[in-house]
Design brief:
The complex is a heterodimer of chains A (421) and B (315). Chain A is built from 6 helices and 25 strands. In chain A, the strands form 5 sheets. In chain A, strands 16-17-20-24-23-22-21 form a 7-stranded antiparallel beta sheet, sandwiched between helices. A 6-stranded antiparallel beta barrel of chain A has the order 8-9-10-13-12-11. In chain A, strands 2-3-4-7-6-5 form a 6-stranded antiparallel β-barrel, surrounded by 4 helices. Chain A folds into 2 domains: 218 residues, Beta Barrel (Thrombin, subunit H); 192 residues, no CATH class. In chain A, β22 and β23 form a beta hairpin. The two termini of chain A are 36 Å apart. Helices cover 18% and strands 39% of the residues of chain A. With 421 residues, chain A is an alpha+beta fold. Chain B has 2 domains: 101 residues, Sandwich (Tumour Suppressor Smad4); 160 residues, no CATH class. Chain B is built from 8 helices and 10 strands. In chain B, β9 and β10 form a beta hairpin. Chain B is elongated, with a radius of gyration of 30 Å. Chain B starts with a strand and ends with a helix. Classes of the chains: A alpha+beta (421), B alpha+beta (315). The interface between A and B is large, with 64 and 41 residues.
Chain lengths: 421, 315
């Protein structure tokens, strides 16, 4: 499972910086020390650091780019935390200038917009796969470290662009830059799934955020409003992409179900034929690998749907449905959530008559809203066909971080898409 | 006029009654006494009771304590003087035995009419009812085992379920039969057996069909109702069992019968008060049945969609 660097707890020794550099190592470190800093999130009550990450200067040197997840505590509990960096022994307290929660980026600045050091340049030129890149950061708070690795293009099966970087990115390097051998920033360290599989935010997302920063009007918008606006934009676009596609129907046992709608989703399948119970199950499902980090106990942006076909010719229909009831009793949403951020699910249960497109089914549809983020919802759908005595179809989906309109359109489309063959 | 001595238990039930056609009697453990009571706390010749007809006071009883070890007390435990006077119908305590002193002229109330409950009790204790309830229980538990876990391959486990069920019925009936025997000289084992059997049948049927009934009657999810049904059945079962086994007063019966259901209801109340507590899993109705079991009208797709719009407004 992909883990945020911030949460990653594995100890890892960083490889030495490669000597095949245009710069001498000393010069490189000298330059970094004026551009790349350890970002500390200080718990005001205890006065100690609670989170660390990395940040680097951009534009005129007054703005520090880092990950949203490094500074998310400031957004969620602004009275409890502050962000600091140390430059040549002097501590600067920074505030959030803007962020892009979807791409996990944040821009910090000093209250009086002080020039903090020398900015790094961003490179928007396309990269070739196999190119060696250098990721810089402060892994596990052991000091500024350079890690080399390979550019492997964009990660597939996601709505949110992310660069696959084969290098040892570790906890604490979050928000640090990944640069080319010319010293230009091409990505921002964001996550790792271990075993040298690292993820970077493409630098164009940062460029866009910086460009919008200049256009930003006033400060009337709260952080949560901005989060809501950004997630709404992301999820409307993603759900629209799914809705506009032709949903391919694939055979699943005796049924036709929705296959892979988009390349942004990854799909899987499974089957089981139990000789003792004479119960046969076949399942298929798709999900995206995206998630939008809002804080350590709350993520949104995951979408998934799955189908499971059950058949048991030798069973009586009452026990057959009793079994399916037990099987479908524990379905749950896929995003991480905590009571401080989401409300309870409210559900409705219906028995829907068969239509010319789909079978008769018992549907449970549940919706929950968020406590701070307006107009976005998690939705949960599970339905079981009820028109065949010894054969049944379970269909299920969850969408997280979607608007009512998107959720409604998806529900309408999904509930009539699967059918008996 | 003759003296009547009734030996009663603590709940006032007469366990032994004897009429003495003489003016004075003695009570004690010795075989020379008129009333012989095998209570080790009573002296061989403990007391003598005389009936005295006084022109002014009417008749009353005079009780002489014959230097007994433990003396004579009234029904509240107050020690009496060496000679004490009693009215007809009063309860006197000697040792650990309660006796009621009466005279043959005392009026006895008319018989209590046999209640419908007594008739039902009799019918429930007949062999027909016992066999029928036993068979239904066995059938239901077997059906339930098969219906709810079709894939169970372990026959021993299935037999064990049946044996445990029967054992628990017998233990329940045994407890109340013992109570009945001790307090009413009436065991009524088979009555309790059929009562608990009927309760089990009702609960098992409810478990099997509740979701379906609730859905068809459009009552929502049955989860909140389940504990109320269980509490009610347990309360009724225990209440009627106590009624047949003891001579407790109505309020005592209600109090005892409501202990377990009370705990269930308190638990339910706590859950209801916590209804707003966060649950990250959606609380949806998990039951689905083959469509022939749904009698309520199905919704159209448009109705389902329209109804879902309210879900976004509720929060």
């Amino acid at each position: 499972m992909r883990l945020l660097l911030l949460l990653l707890a594995c100890l890892c020794v960083s490889p030495a910086f490669s000597s095949t550099q245009r710069y001498s190592t000393d010069a490189l470190f000298e330059q970094f020390s004026r551009s790349i800093f350890k970002v500390r999130i200080i718990d005001i009550n205890s006065g100690s650091q609670s989170t660390i990450g990395t940040g680097f200067l951009v534009e005129d040197g007054s703005l520090l780019a880092t990950n949203f997840h490094v500074v998310s505590a400031l957004v969620n509990k602004p009275n409890q935390y502050r962000a600091e960096i140390d430059i040549a022994g002097e501590t600067h307290t920074l505030e959030i200038a803007s962020f892009d929660v979807v791409h996990d980026l944040a821009i910090l600045q000093a209250p009086n917009k002080t020039i903090l050091g020398q900015a790094l340049t961003l490179s928007l030129e396309p990269l070739n796969k196999g190119l060696t890149l250098y990721s810089i950061g402060n892994p596990h708070d052991i000091g500024m470290t350079v890690v080399d690795g390979t550019y492997n293009g964009l990660v597939t099966h996601r709505f949110i662009d992310s660069i696959h970087f084969s290098g040892a990115i570790n906890s604490g390097m979050s928000g640090g830059p990944t640069i080319t051998d010319r010293g230009d920033v091409v990505g921002i360290n964001v996550a790792s799934s271990g075993d040298q599989i690292g993820f970077l935010v493409p630098v164009d997302k940062l460029a866009k955020l910086l460009a919008n920063l200049e256009n930003k009007t006033g400060k009337s918008q709260t952080h949560y409003d901005l989060i809501s606006q950004q997630i709404t934009q992301f999820s409307e676009q993603a759900i629209n992409e799914l809705l506009q596609k032709n949903w391919p129907l694939e055979k699943l046992a005796n049924t036709k179900v929705v296959g892979q709608i988009s390349d942004s989703l990854s799909c899987w399948g499974d089957s089981d034929d139990n000789e003792d119970t004479h119960l046969t199950t076949v399942s298929k499902g798709c999900s995206n690998k995206d998630y939008i980090y809002i804080n350590s106990s709350f993520t949104v942006g995951s979408f998934e749907y799955e189908y499971k076909h059950f058949s048991a010719d030798s069973w009586n229909s009452f026990s057959f449905y009793e079994y399916i009831n037990q099987f479908t009793a524990n379905a749950r949403p896929s995003n991480r959530s905590h009571k401080s951020h989401v409300n309870n699910y409210i559900c409705q249960n219906n028995v829907m008559a068969a239509t010319d497109k789909t079978f008769a089914k018992k549907i449970s549809y549940c919706v929950r809203s968020y406590k701070h983020i307006k107009d976005l919802y998690d939705t949960f759908y599970i339905a079981t066909s009820i028109d065949r005595p010894k054969e049944a179809m379970m269909e299920h989906y969850t969408l997280s971080g979607v608007t009512e309109a998107s959720a409604h359109q998806f529900l309408e489309r999904f509930m009539e898409s699967a059918s008996w063959q | 006029m003759a003296i009547v001595i009734e030996i009663i238990n603590r709940s006032g039930h007469v366990q032994h009654c004897q009429v003495f056609d003489k003016e004075s009697i003695t009570i004690g453990r010795a075989y020379t006494n008129d009333v012989i009571i095998a209570d080790p706390y009573i002296d061989p010749v403990h007391a003598s009771i005389s009936i005295i007809d006084d022109n002014e006071r009417g008749f009353y009883f005079s009780c002489d304590d014959l230097s007994s070890t433990n003396g004579i007390s009234d029904s509240k435990g107050h020690k009496q003087a060496a000679t004490s006077h009693w009215q007809a119908g009063q309860v006197v305590s000697l040792g650990k035995t309660l006796i009621r002193i009466n005279s043959t002229t005392a009026t006895v109330p008319t018989a209590v009419r046999l209640s419908a409950w007594e008739q039902i009790s009799d019918s429930l204790s007949r062999a027909r009812a016992i066999i029928l309830v036993s068979l239904c229980c066995l059938l239901l538990i077997t059906a339930d085992t098969y219906l709810s876990s079709f894939s169970v391959q372990n026959k021993t486990a299935e037999y064990a379920i049946v044996v445990y069920l029967l054992l628990s019925i017998v233990v329940y009936a045994g407890i109340f039969a013992f109570l009945g025997k001790a307090l009413r000289q009436d065991s009524r084992f088979w009555l309790y057996y059929t009562l608990v059997g009927l309760s089990i049948i009702f609960i098992a049927l409810y478990d099997l069909l509740a979701d379906l009934i609730f859905f068809n009657l459009n009552l929502g999810i049955s989860h909140w109702f389940d504990p109320i049904i269980y509490a009610l059945v347990i309360a009724l079962l225990v209440y009627f069992s106590i009624q047949s086994a003891s001579s407790f007063k109505v309020f005592t019966r209600i109090a005892i019968a409501s202990i377990v259901p009370g705990l269930i209801i308190i638990n339910l109340a706590i859950n209801v008060s916590r209804n707003n507590e966060f649950n990250w899993r959606p609380q949806y109705d998990v039951s689905a049945y083959f469509q022939h079991l749904y009698f309520a009208k199905s919704d159209t797709q448009q109705e389902v969609l329209d109804a879902s719009k309210a879900l976004y407004r509720q929060q």
